[in-house]
């Protein structure tokens, strides 16, 4: 039986990615779209300025956009994907949770809340059990699950691999694509022939979310991982794909060959949107590159390369597609995990 799903904030850039990824999905049937009051009541193709590189599915184009209000969403929706701006999501998502909906959210609000699972299915699926704690503490019938920031999700799978070698400290510098700021986020006059050496709030997200994702769950709470994480986040004029340079201090000796082998062997998950191999490792030190490698695994695979030894551990580069693996695709994958684990 198909799982009926809806999208909160369906007309925005990430909402459009959700629609693209849900087309012909083997489990999910897209049955509801919501947006702002200015879009409610319109056909989707009238409400959305479509910017994704595939056409709007015909059935979606003709769907009526509803308002982002639990009263306007059908009761038989099993799962909602949220791509709302965080300021809006902080107010709206609790209303849907109190109404009994399960929400897989890409919005940044509540990612670090102690009773909200911040989840990458390949890394910490056991954190979903925080839903029980969440329901007990908040008294709602719904459930809220978050995926991490797009820059965090690029790096953390590689750190999960390194944890077996005693991960102690991480320093990362990011080169982030303009799509991460949304369509109107960076003007052409700002970014062409330029690089912007700060992204508001991004560094803190990487430094905190990474430790929660890698933390240990005892059935009641998540203890943050003990590694120190320091991030410097930069915007560059690439369209999609965040490239990151990582320096990791390790307690154990691990050669670049050891690290490369461990990354290649790190297990994936049996979910429809998951890549067969989570991390692709390049031997070519000139890879990964955003334009060449962001679409690997239908945009869901992490790429790594340039692994070298340092005095205290290793350094390397990693890359992921920021609006697929780093946003809509991450939420879809969490939704698939929720379905597989019987939460919906």
Task: From the structure above, extract its key features.
344 residues, alpha/beta, six-stranded mixed beta sheet
Question: Mind sketching the topology for me?
Answer:
Layout: E1 3-8, H1 13-22, E2 28-35, H2 44-47, H3 58-61, E3 66-67, E4 79-82, H4 86-98, E5 102-105, H5 130-138, E6 143-146, H6 150-162, E7 167-176, H7 188-191, H8 202-213, E8 216-217, E9 222-223, E10 228-235, E11 242-250, H9 256-265, E12 279-281, H10 290-293, E13 302-309, E14 313-320, H11 324-340
Parallel strand pairs: 1-2, 1-4, 2-3, 4-5, 5-6, 7-10, 12-13
Antiparallel strand pairs: 7-11, 8-9, 11-14, 13-14
Describe this structure in words.
This protein is α/β, with parallel strands linked by helices and 344 residues long. It has helices at residues 13-22, 44-47, 58-61, 86-98, 130-138, 150-162, 188-191, 202-213, 256-265, 290-293, 324-340, and strands at residues 3-8, 28-35, 66-67, 79-82, 102-105, 143-146, 167-176, 216-217, 222-223, 228-235, 242-250, 279-281, 302-309, 313-320. It has a six-stranded parallel beta sheet with strand order 3-2-1-4-5-6, sandwiched between helices. Strands 10-7-11-14-13-12 form a six-stranded mixed beta sheet. It has a two-stranded antiparallel sheet with strand order 8-9. Helix 1 crosses helix 11 (324-340) and helix 6 packs parallel to helix 8 (202-213). The mean pLDDT is 97.
């Amino acid at each position: 039986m198909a799982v009926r799903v809806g999208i909160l904030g369906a007309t925005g850039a990430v909402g459009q990615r959700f629609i693209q990824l849900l087309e012909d999905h083997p489990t999910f049937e897209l049955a509801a779209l919501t947006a702002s009051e200015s879009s409610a009541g319109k056909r989707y193709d009238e409400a959305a300025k479509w910017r994704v590189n595939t056409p709007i599915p015909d059935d979606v184009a003709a769907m009526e956009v509803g308002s982002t209000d639990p009263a306007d969403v059908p009761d038989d929706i099993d799962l909602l994907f949220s791509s709302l701006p965080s300021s809006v999501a902080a107010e709206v998502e609790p209303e849907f949770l109190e109404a009994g909906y399960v929400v897989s959210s890409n919005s940044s609000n509540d990612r670090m809340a102690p009773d909200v699972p911040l989840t990458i299915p390949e890394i910490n699926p056991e954190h979903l059990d925080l839903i029980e704690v969440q329901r007990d503490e908040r008294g709602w019938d719904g459930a809220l699950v978050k995926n991490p920031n797009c820059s965090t999700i690029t790096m953390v799978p590689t750190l999960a691999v390194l944890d077996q070698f005693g991960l102690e400290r991480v320093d990362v510098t990011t080169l982030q694509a303009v799509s991460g700021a949304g369509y109107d986020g960076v003007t052409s006059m700002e970014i062409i022939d330029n690089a912007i050496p700060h992204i508001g709030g991004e560094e803190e997200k990487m430094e905190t979310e990474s430790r929660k994702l890698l933390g240990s769950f005892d059935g009641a709470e998540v203890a943050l991982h003990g590694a120190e994480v320091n991030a410097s986040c930069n915007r560059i004029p690439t369209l999609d794909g965040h490239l990151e340079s990582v320096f990791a201090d390790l307690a154990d000796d691990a050669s670049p060959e050891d690290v490369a082998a461990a990354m290649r062997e790190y297990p994936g998950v049996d979910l429809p949107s998951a890549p067969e191999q989570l991390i692709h490792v390049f031997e070519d030190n000139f890879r990964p590159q955003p334009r060449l490698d962001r679409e690997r695994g239908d945009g869901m695979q992490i790429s790594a390369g340039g692994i070298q030894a340092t005095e205290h551990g290793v350094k390397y580069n990693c890359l992921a597609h920021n609006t697929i693996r780093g946003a809509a695709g991450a939420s879809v994958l969490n939704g698939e995990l929720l379905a597989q684990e019987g939460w919906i």
